[in-house]
Design a protein that fits this description.
By secondary structure, the chain is an alpha/beta fold. 54% of the residues lie in helices and 8% in strands. It has helices at residues 3-13, 19-28, 39-45, 50-59, 65-77, 79-82, 94-115, 118-130, 143-154, 165-172, 195-203, 234-256, and strands spanning 133-137, 158-162, 179-183, 207-210, 224-225. The relative contact order is 0.13.
Length: 261
């Protein structure tokens, strides 16, 4: 994910009384001032210690405050281009916006039906059932994944879901050949490089399901490409994925939980 999404996820991830949440909140409320700030400026702006600011940056996956500032500057500077839910030509009127999203839903429904066929859902459910552990590395929280994790737990599987890069790297350290990882990376130019994470998962011997197509820069790591041959816009793909996981969760429950009750 890019620095803005990373920052928002970090903020939402933290308890209300966290000192790191204060840092994230202060930055989010002052994005217009972030282009040339130093760690000392953020320290003063958020009434936090320099150590707290530095640790917050580390927890988001950056090696230095300067790296974080440049990433945030790039994300903010490219906001109107890369962080659109719709292309600019559809946003001239409210009617155009609604119609465009409705069309995206129709395309998502077609993509879901074309990929998540009964045969593929059964094959994916078997992959999940054969794994001893299933981890989800996602850009943000999917409600469908929570449903899937409950079903996995009901069948004795270890399962985890991580959004922030340091958390995923830590989780990946404990993977093995009996593990399966479900990736859904955001691949805009300003997004964080996830290559080290993919390499680590591969080195640990875990299987990789990649919710993308053959054009993904991470496609060579995938044992299973969920949308191979489908050139889908980001929103369309994520919507198809959300409901595809719901469908997979239902198939998994019927095959491996209801039969045992």
């Amino acid at each position: 994910m890019d620095a803005l999404h990373n920052l928002v996820e970090f903020y939402n991830h933290l308890p209300l009384d966290s000192t790191y949440r204060v840092v994230a909140k202060g930055i989010l409320e002052n994005l217009d001032k972030m282009s040339n700030v130093t760690i000392y400026d953020v320290e003063e702006l958020t009434s936090s210690s320099r150590t707290t600011v530095w640790r917050a940056v580390q927890k988001m996956g950056y090696r230095s405050f300067t790296e974080f500032r440049y990433a945030l500057q790039a994300a903010v500077g490219q906001y109107t281009y890369y962080n659109r839910s719709l292309p600019a030509e559809f946003t001239g009127t409210d009617t155009g916006i609604v119609s465009a999203f409705a069309q995206q839903l129709r395309v998502s429904a077609d993509a879901m039906e074309n990929y998540f066929t009964q045969e593929r859902l059964i094959a994916l459910s078997e992959l999940l059932y054969q794994a001893g552990r299933v981890s989800f590395y996602l850009p943000f929280r999917f409600p469908s994944v929570a449903s899937m994790q409950i079903n996995l737990s009901m069948t004795g599987k270890q399962t985890s879901c991580c959004m922030l890069l340091p958390d995923t790297m830590e989780d990946a350290q404990s993977l093995d050949e009996n593990s399966l990882v479900w990736f859904s990376p955001v691949e805009v130019p300003s997004a964080m490089d996830m290559e080290p994470l993919f390499r680590l998962v591969q080195e640990r011997g875990a299987g990789i399901i990649l919710a993308s197509d053959e054009h993904s820069r991470y496609a060579r790591y995938a044992d299973e490409l969920l949308f191979d041959g489908m050139n889908l816009a980001e929103n369309t793909r994520l919507t198809a994925l959300e409901f595809g996981i719901y469908a997979l969760s239902e198939v998994y429950r019927k095959r491996y939980i209801e039969k045992s009750l």
